[in-house]
């Protein structure tokens, strides 16, 4: 049987580093696109708000997930799992609905979505393992 708590913690730890790189690259690419490409009226502001909201929510989600898995508090993991939905929507926006999407963004966003889906699956397994009665054999 896989230790879902350990796997979930490893995935959250990996995501904390990947997200730092992801956010840095996305902000850099957005800045580059804002300077060199032409945008319609409110697209520039909308994409900046989506990126900043994504960074804020993902930071909160990672913090809650790591705190919950280390202390075995299910409500932190539940909140982290629930925050996966808006964060995934933000990544999907960056992947498909932006005005200009670079090839590197396709790769980074696809990896981010894969990591989030895997984390969500192990968060659910971890939450089920918290609900199980402990056996002392």
Automatic annotation (TrEMBL):
Signal peptide: none annotated. It comes from Clunio marinus. The chain crosses the membrane at residues 12-32, 76-97, 103-128. This is CLUMA_CG011096, isoform A. InterPro entries: Uncharacterised_TM-17. Keywords: Membrane, Transmembrane, Transmembrane helix. It is found in: Membrane. It is a multi-pass membrane protein. One of its GO terms (biological process) is non-motile cilium assembly. It comes from the Eukaryota. One of its GO terms (cellular component) is ciliary transition zone.
């Amino acid at each position: 049987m896989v230790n879902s708590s350990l796997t979930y913690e490893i995935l959250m730890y990996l995501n904390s580093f990947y997200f730092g790189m992801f956010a840095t690259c996305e902000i850099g690419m957005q800045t580059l696109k804002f300077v060199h490409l032409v945008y319609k009226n409110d697209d520039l502001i909308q994409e900046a708000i989506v990126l900043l909201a994504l960074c804020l929510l993902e930071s909160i989600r990672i913090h809650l997930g790591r705190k919950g898995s280390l202390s075995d508090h299910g409500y932190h993991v539940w909140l982290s799992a629930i925050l996966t939905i808006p964060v995934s929507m933000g990544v999907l926006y960056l992947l498909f609905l932006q005005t200009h999407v670079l090839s590197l963004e396709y790769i980074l966003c696809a990896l981010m979505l894969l990591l989030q889906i895997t984390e969500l699956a192990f968060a659910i397994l971890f939450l089920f393992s918290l609900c199980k009665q402990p056996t002392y054999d």
